[in-house]
Amino acid sequence: MKRLTLVVVALSFVSPWAATAQTSKAAAARAALLKTDIEWAATVGTADVERIVSFWTDDAVVYSPREAPVAGKAAIRKYVGDSLKIPGFSVSWKPAAAVVSASGDLGYTTGTNSFTFPDDQGRPTTANGRYVTVWKKERDGRWRCVVDFWNEAPPPASGAGNPK
Prior knowledge:
The chain is α+β, with helices and mostly antiparallel strands. It has one domain (about 25-150): Nuclear Transport Factor 2, Chain: A, CATH 3.10.450.50. Helices cover about 35% and strands about 35% of the residues. The protein has helices at about 1-45, 50-55, 75-85, and strands at about 55-65, 70, 90-100, 105-120, 125-135, 145-150. β5 and β6 (about 145-150) form a beta hairpin.
């Protein structure tokens, strides 16, 4: 009985430590994933197609509004390269949150984005949106995007913030 009491007392000290270690590990994984998405967002300003594409897995799929899905790294490379050649084109995004699975090998990020491109008359137009990216931690330890999905944000409500 004395031995059982010692085991129970010992486990009561270990259990909170294990929970704290798991919480700390989960927070570190979320921070690493969010950092990866922030680094990816910074690469788009370089117009370095290979660097930009390196954040996707070989079998990734991009779902953009009103377009067919773009599947596979070769197709994504062409999509990115063609987009960067459009005069006046730019894209930016701001990650807001990251979630990582308990196993630590899958996660997703969410945030807002902005695309600027010429309209039918050649005038610059900007579309603001929201995104979700699904990430996989690969064998080399890097997070890479496997699904990239975004849509346009709804227009601001008319009269929002204007008291009548």
